[in-house]
Amino acid sequence: MSIVAMTLFSAVPLTALICGLSYAMYSYGLYKMAGNTGAKPALLAWLPCLRLYTLGQIADRYNRSIGKGSIYRFAMPGLRLLSLLFTLLTSAALFVTYLTGWGADAIVALLGISGVSFASIVCRVMELICCYKTFCDFEPEYSVLYLILSILGLEWIALFLCRRNVPVGIAGHCHPRQPRYNEE
Question: What is the DSSP letter of 142?
Answer without folding.
Answer: G
